Automatic annotation (TrEMBL):
Protein name from the UniProt record: Glycogen synthase
Catalytic activity reported: [(1->4)-alpha-D-glucosyl](n) + ADP-alpha-D-glucose = [(1->4)-alpha-D-glucosyl](n+1) + ADP + H(+)
Key words, A-Z: Glycogen biosynthesis, Glycosyltransferase, Transferase
Organism: Azospirillum thermophilum
The keyword Glycosyltransferase appears for this protein: yes
Entries under PANTHER family matching the protein: ALPHA AMYLASE DOMAIN-CONTAINING PROTEIN, GRANULE-BOUND STARCH SYNTHASE 1, CHLOROPLASTIC/AMYLOPLASTIC
Length: 490
């Protein structure tokens, strides 16, 4: 089974969020399960520099949207997975964020850039495929940047017809990001005008890249079972709920996994001390180091709550600001790593300035520091208003840092609340609250600090949390079954 995994990000080559982690960890798991998975990535400078043994494959590509000269190159990721890079300098030879220019706004040609990525993926299915030695059975695209892949196969048989059409899968990692562009670009991105209709690529008067993928893909997936249900509702469907509800029989929720080769406190090279469920002594040293790194009082008895996130309203971080006074009054400390909305960045900076011995804030992102925060904190906060899957709460479980989450999406699927029944039978792994308001978060924090003052019960929950297995082997088997079904229908 040959699968082309089409993605705009892959850790450690390029990363803006959890999609990069999934793109790095899922292909090796699929290969271990018996597939032949290769990646297709935009040829960003970091990608071209980061792939080993890079060399050209196939002929010069002269018909990409927005670019008349491009090369396909192939190499290996740091994990050893074969990866194609679409080397189109006019589109991808740009430093920094892959989607945003130096002014912090979207690159004005993003429509062309990711149409080209989708076009290149579809090109693997053509009679004269871009790689003459390898033809995929399945094209698996990720998020709006790849939404035109199934559309091109359906709408441009004149260009992409081959001996056997691959099955198409589209995974929605976050439905809030949809890729909407002006209708006047239909011809520029190689779409026929006849496709500009509701039963096609038209979306609120423009071209919807994610909508196109949701309409034309053979199968749709998203990154947790609960989120698969939520995106069919008006509250969280972001305008696509009707289409997704109509395709419910082709929509699956497959929970993301964790790469335990990267996220494991027993062998994490970023930590000052390593530890496991059988011996938590190293975690105490990690906590002391974290307090020192953020300039906090080194108090073993102070529960440290942590945030590693984009600082946005969507992530519920305004609720943390509202609740912080209560947490600090109970003797708690808070560390924050992230950036995004200036108002929230400023709010956390002010909180730290007013409470320098109890609150530490770093604006930006630091991969090594994120590992040290997971290891050194006691409580990990994910109060998101919506969360398709979430990975940080699963990392926290492995590090014995109990997650406190809002009950939504993958957070609901991965964390067992410490309610009386779960606490009694030992199945609890963290704390949940239901409604996105500060009062419910405060009550959940109160429950957490009360349990923290009972070290025996707290450590028992830590050890249980650390035994939870969210490795990629189970999701990989689910994807393999899905691929087999897609191959059988086309």
């Amino acid at each position: 089974m040959r699968v082309l995994f089409v993605t705009p990000e892959c850790y450690p080559l390029v990363k803006t969020g959890g999609l990069a982690d999934v793109s790095a960890a899922l292909p090796p798991a699929l290969n271990a399960a018996g597939a032949d998975v290769r990646l297709l990535l935009p040829g960003y400078p970091a990608v071209l520099d980061g792939l080993s043994n890079l060399h050209e494959v196939g002929e010069l590509i002269t018909d990409l949207p927005g670019c008349d000269r491009a090369r396909l190159r192939i190499g290996r990721t740091p994990d050893g997975v074969l990866a194609y890079a679409l080397d189109a300098p006019a589109l991808f030879n740009r430093p920094g964020n892959p989607y945003l220019g130096p002014d912090g706004k979207d690159w004005p040609d993003n429509a062309m850039r990711f149409a080209a990525l989708s076009w290149a993926a579809a090109g693997f299915a053509a009679e004269e495929g871009y790689d003459p030695w390898w033809r995929p059975d399945v094209l698996h695209g990720h998020d709006w940047q790849t939404g035109l892949v199934p559309a091109y196969l359906a709408l441009r048989p004149d260009r992409f017809a081959g001996p056997r059409r691959p099955g198409t899968v589209l995974t929605i990692h976050n439905i809030a990001y949809q890729g909407w562009f002006g209708a006047w670009m239909m011809g520029d991105v190689g779409l026929p005008s006849s496709a500009f209709r509701v039963d096609g690529v038209e979306y609120y008067g423009g071209i919807g890249y994610l909508k196109a993928g949701c309409f034309y893909a053979d199968r749709l997936t998203t990154v947790s079972p609960t989120y698969a249900h939520e995106i069919q509702t008006e509250e969280q469907g972001a305008g696509l709920q009707g289409l997704l509800a109509g395709r419910a029989d082709t929509l699956s929720g497959i929970l993301n996994g964790v790469d335990y080769a990267v996220w494991d406190p027993a062998r994490d090279p970023h930590l000052p001390a390593r530890y496991g469920a059988g011996d938590l002594g190293g975690k105490e040293l990690c906590k002391a180091e974290l307090q020192s790194a953020f300039g906090l009082d080194r108090r073993a008895d102070a529960p440290v709550a942590a945030v590693v996130s984009r600082l946005t309203w969507h992530k519920g971080l305004d609720l943390v600001l509202e609740a912080a006074g209560h947490w600090l009054s109970w003797g708690g400390q808070l560390v924050v790593l992230g950036n995004s909305e200036p108002g929230l960045e400023g709010g956390f900076k002010q909180l730290a300035q007013a409470n320098p011995q109890s609150v530490g804030v770093r604006i930006g992102y630091d991969e090594a520091l994120s590992h040290r925060i997971q290891a050194g904190a006691d409580l990990f906060l994910v109060p998101s208003r919506s969360e398709p899957c979430g990975l940080t709460q699963m990392y926290a479980l492995k590090y014995g840092t109990l997650p406190l989450v809002r009950r939504t999406g993958g957070l609901a699927d991965t964390i067992v609340d410490a309610n009386p029944a779960a606490a009694a039978d030992g199945s609890a792994t963290g704390f949940q609250f239901v409604n996105a308001n500060a009062q419910e978060l405060i009550w959940a924090l109160r429950r957490a600090v009360t349990l923290y003052r009972r070290p025996g019960r707290w450590q028992a929950m830590q050890r249980h949390a650390m035994t939870r297995d969210f490795g990629w082997h189970r999701p990989a088997e689910e994807y393999m079954e899905l691929y087999r079904g897609v191959m059988g229908r086309v």
